[in-house]
Amino acid sequence: MQNELLLMMPGPVPMPERVRNAMSRQAINHRGKEFGGVYADCVRVLKALFGTENDLFVLSGSGTAGMEAAIANVGLDQTIVSLVNGKFGERLAEISGRYGTSVAIESEWGHPYDLEVLAEALENGAGIVTMVHNETSAGILNPAAEVGRLARKHDALFVMDGITSIGGEHVACDEWGADIAIVGSQKCLAAPAGLSAVSVSERAWERLSEKRPYYLDLKAYRKAGSKDPMETPYTPAVPLFFAFREACLIAEEEGIENRIARHRKLADAVRAAAKEWGLPLLPVSDNLHSPSNTVTAIQYPDGVSDGDLRGSLKKMGIEIAGGQDRLKGKIFRIGTMGATGPSEVLATVAAVQGTLKRLGYSFDGDGVSAATEVLV
């Protein structure tokens, strides 16, 4: 990987060699037994990572395609309540407005949801609730179990964006009552961008919209997926499936609990460094909301610009993320997802620490030592 940029972002992330090599093989018949086996391997591992026994399908389309599939298949002419405390919650609300009546319950980005307002909206007849489990734009982990409980209490469907949590955070879709859940390939699973996976509960099947999209019709995916060998209804991105299968097998070999623990430890190390630098995290925690374990959002100190910090790191071969939209220039984000390990985190922490000092920000602590203490 010499001369390659180290991506320490909340996706895309560095891909293991096995994953990269899987894309270089010859094409195969995507209606044959071999592809069916590839697809079946993906589904088997993903169901464990989702924490579900529901139907699950892999779509040739990014996480946003998965989001749109979720809404478009059940949301036509429905009142859809979207919980928004970051960029991707906002995106779900925007997609919802294309198909039904969108009601956004907004908090400041990185701040907790107001679940009392959600309960009121559900009491007034909303039929669908959407939420982003892990809002990477603000580095906050949102309370899926509590939102699912409220949705089920009022007989509403619960659509959960797990695009950046599944494979890196504890996820229990069936236990939480997530009727439709989504993951993206290039996030915690460390596969190439361009695929998403969607799980669908029996409750969601019972409430399918009569008019559904053509390419993203989940009923068509269910029919094709029930064949032996498994198929997709339309031509899949076969090289990406090869890579995704390898990424899933790597996750299976590591073990789900080990994988979750690794992500948490890496994030703890970044948080420990930020504390030594005297820089607050963006997300506001309470007893239901906590900082993400797949990305850490850190507030900039006065006098340090986004361009200077991230630009300097990129010259050193490390790319971290900045803030999006209204958070642009206010935060920087360090990803700890996918195949990332202690060496990548320590290299990033050291580069950030040195750059902050060079840019004139003074602090007494040693973030590198603090991160090392967490990782050893």
UniProtKB/TrEMBL annotation:
Alphabetical keyword list: Aminotransferase, Pyridoxal phosphate, Transferase
Record Gene3D superfamilies: Aspartate Aminotransferase, domain 1 (3.90.1150.10), Type I PLP-dependent aspartate aminotransferase-like (Major domain) (3.40.640.10)
Extent of the signal sequence: none
Keyword field contains Transferase: yes
Keyword set includes Transferase: yes
GO MF annotations, alphabetized: alanine-glyoxylate transaminase activity; L-serine-pyruvate transaminase activity
Residue stretches making up the Aminotransferase class V domain: 24-324
GO biological process: glycine biosynthetic process, by transamination of glyoxylate
Domain of life: Archaea
Cofactor(s) annotated in UniProt: pyridoxal 5'-phosphate
Family: Belongs to the class-V pyridoxal-phosphate-dependent aminotransferase family.
PANTHER family, A to Z: ALANINE--GLYOXYLATE AMINOTRANSFERASE 1, AMINOTRANSFERASE CLASS V
Listed name of the protein: Aminotransferase
Species of the source: Methanocalculus chunghsingensis
Source organism phylogeny: Archaea, Methanobacteriati, Methanobacteriota, Stenosarchaea group, Methanomicrobia
